[in-house]
Amino acid sequence: MFTSKMKIFNTLETYIKSKSQPHTRDIVVAFSGGVDSHVLLHALSNLRIEFGFNLHAIHIHHGLSQYADVWQSHCKQVCEVLNVEFQTAKVELQNSSRTSLEALARDARYKKIAELVPEHSHVFLGQHQDDQLETFLLQLKRGAGPKGLSAMNQTWQAHDLTGKAVTFHRPLLTVSQQDILAYAQQHQLNWCEDESNQNTDFERNFLRHEVLPVLQNRWPELAKSVSRSASLCAQQQDMLDEVCAEKLSRLENEDKSLDIAGLLELSVTWINQVVRFWLAQQGIQSPSLAVLERLLPDVLKAADDANPILQWQTWQFRRFNQQLYVIKVQDKVEPTSFQWTGQEQVVLPQNVGALQFESQGVSIDNGIRFNLAVGDILIELARYGKRFKPVDAPHSKPLKQWFKVWQVPPWKRDRVIQLVQNDRIIGLFIDGKWIVSSELSETTERRMTVSYLP
Hints:
Layout: H1 4-19, E1 26-30, H2 35-51, E2 54-61, H3 68-82, E3 85-90, H4 101-116, E4 122-124, H5 129-141, H6 146-149, E5 155-157, H7 159-162, E6 167-169, H8 177-186, H9 203-218, H10 222-251, E7 258-259, H11 260-264, H12 268-281, H13 289-300, E8 309-312, E9 315-320, E10 323-328, E11 336-339, E12 345-347, E13 354-358, E14 367-371, E15 377-381, E16 387-388, E17 397-398, H14 399-405, H15 410-413, E18 417-421, E19 424-430, E20 433-436, E21 447-453
Parallel strand pairs: 1-2, 1-4, 2-3, 4-6
Antiparallel strand pairs: 5-6, 7-10, 8-9, 9-10, 11-15, 12-13, 13-21, 14-21, 15-18, 16-17, 18-19, 19-20
Helix pairs in contact: 1-2, 1-8, 2-8, 5-9, 5-10, 10-12
């Protein structure tokens, strides 16, 4: 029978061998100072010579506890004793909901770590089998499906946090907390105890202290059984994702919108699955089932002349030209008109962006060139009373008609930047490019070039 020491060493050895890549020589431990991450760091420090990897540790200072500075100093001292390169950083949390504070701190911690480590780094986390049990039960309480009941993935990518390729690992998910504590005691490790872990106002702590002792007393193997269930749910979700990816490839357009006619050929269940997958591919958290159930009647099957909006949190489902879009909720842009007075840069109101004005040095491909001597320049937003005649167009039309011709979605129209000279639109900035007026004159030598800054 393996001792706790041998079980943890064997688990890590097996995991590292299975994940080893020739170009990967660095492992970073997310080191909180608690017993789980301390055991992980200590065990890896004993394996680094055998496997030939460099070992690093990062400690994130949340500032939530009065002992945060003490924990930071403790982690630094531990790394000095183990001869492990140590790095620390602070994050600031602003939150009024106590029940979501743990999630807020966790997300901030992972994001900061992903920012600090080099591209293609491998970050090891100390979560174990009992943590997996808690996560599974919390997801069960929330009514999650296979994806949620997969609980914590053993490996996951952090692209959605920073855009950087960083891989997070949880190599101890098959190891019990009892084995971790036994290892720590055997090696006489000293670790930090977070006093907030005793606060049962937090859901996870309530489970840990009030519920799990009763369940595990009745069913000692519960954590192992739930771990297997989570693994089976993860396998089911992987199969669902494979099918969803195939279906999505036939529905998704270059601008990430979905073909509604194609969606409506699917069953309601598959519509929900594909939409969830579509959102996940864009790093967007899926809405509740109640919101998804409104998608079909309220948006996909709305009247042809309707402009439906289905909103959850900071996102909206929108429909245009028989395509389904998901967009960030935007503040309404009020009609705006103001004169350019010679600044090099103009920051536009309501987070629309900025315009850069230069007398030379900007390629015409990146901007629009105008004659300063011809007349003053006005910058306008969300004003549609003028007509416009693009280059090579036979006739001018009201701006709203051009939006229909160009199929500009309603939510983008208020953010179209208009440059106006002598009460005529000389250029429009739409979807990352300038559309120039046929009436734009370039006969004088005194010219300026204006380009867009996001």
